[in-house]
Amino acid sequence: MASFKKIIVLIAEFFFIDKFGKKVLTFFSGMGESIILFYFAVKNLRYVHRDRKLVLEQMVIVGFNSIPLVIVSATFAGMVSAVQAGYQLQGFGSPNMFLGSATARAITTELAPVLTGLVLSGRFGASIAAEIGTMKVTEQIDALETLAIDPIRYLATPRLLAGIIMMPLLIVIADFIAIGGSMFIGYISMDVAPQAFFASVQRFMEVRDLMAGIVKAFLFGTSTALIGCYVGFSTEGGAEGVGQATIRAFVLSSAAILVNDYVVASIFFL
Predict the structure, then answer these.
(1) Class of residue 32 by CB neighbours under 10 A (exposed 0-12, middle 13-18, buried 19+)
(2) Which of 228, 206, 214 is nearest to 260 (CA)?
(3) What is the pLDDT along the chain (270 residues), one digit of tens a residue?
(4) Which element (helix H / strand E) includes 116?
(5) What is the domain partition of the chain in residue ranges?
């Protein structure tokens, strides 16, 4: 009997079953802990009027300081979308009728939300994980608890609220800039007049295209901030652990953005 158990253990180790099981358990325990963190962060929203300075500071960090990065990424995303749309429309006659709608719908539903979300997950989400993770390994969070200050209220809630508010605003900015870049390339490269470009947008674009992008923005901001806070609070191992937490926050938030992107697209367009 003992030899049979030993054989089973060896087989499990050979096929990495034990490691896979640990990964699955870690994933679901992390999901549960992040949901609990989200619950307490939302519960502390009743103190926002007292902590408005912390919230405004995070809104500046997430929103205002990210505008140059959003402008650069959105401009080139719009220009690339115009080039690709013009290439795809070569076999369908003049691009005057469809270039504006093709690029605007692609930008508002997919390019601007996803690219902006991924860029900010590297800037904002990783920054949250590094900041809170450093406080965790240097025992500053323990000091806050000793002073009877709720770390979730002081650290997580302002960052979560800033992500929820500022991500949609940044994505709306990215929409306008990317559409402008697309119009510019259409004008100088394909002789599509701005009037024809915007007439195509007005004719074919639907309200649900904008709504899908806004819903994605709220989900992207929430998931990025929440994952950054959770990874930061669970950081261990000193400076090396902070570095690993930063990478982990970026990877997890990027994956969450892609998953949420598919879910919202399925709801709105299937």
Answers:
(1) exposed
(2) 214
(3) 456 555 555 555 555 555 666 777 777 787 888 899 999 999 999 988 888 999 999 999 988 899 999 999 999 999 999 988 888 777 665 666 788 888 999 999 999 999 999 998 888 889 999 999 999 999 899 898 888 889 999 999 999 999 999 999 999 999 999 999 999 998 988 888 889 888 888 888 888 888 999 999 999 999 999 999 999 999 988 888 898 999 999 999 999 999 999 999 999 887
(4) helix 112-120
(5) 46-269
CA distances from residue 13 to 3, 16, 91 in whole angstroms, order as listed: 15, 5, 56
At position 209, the amino acid (one-letter code) is D
What is the spatial distance between Cα 248 and Cα 231, in angstroms, rounded to a whole number?
Answer: 7
Are 113 and 261 contacting, i.e. CB atoms less than 8 angstroms apart?
yes
Residue 168 CB contacts under 8 Å (≥ 6 apart), including other chains: 214, 217, 218, 221
Structural tokens at position 241: 């652990």
Taking the CA atoms of residue 132, residue 51, residue 174 and residue 111 in that order, the dihedral angle to the nearest 10 degrees is 50
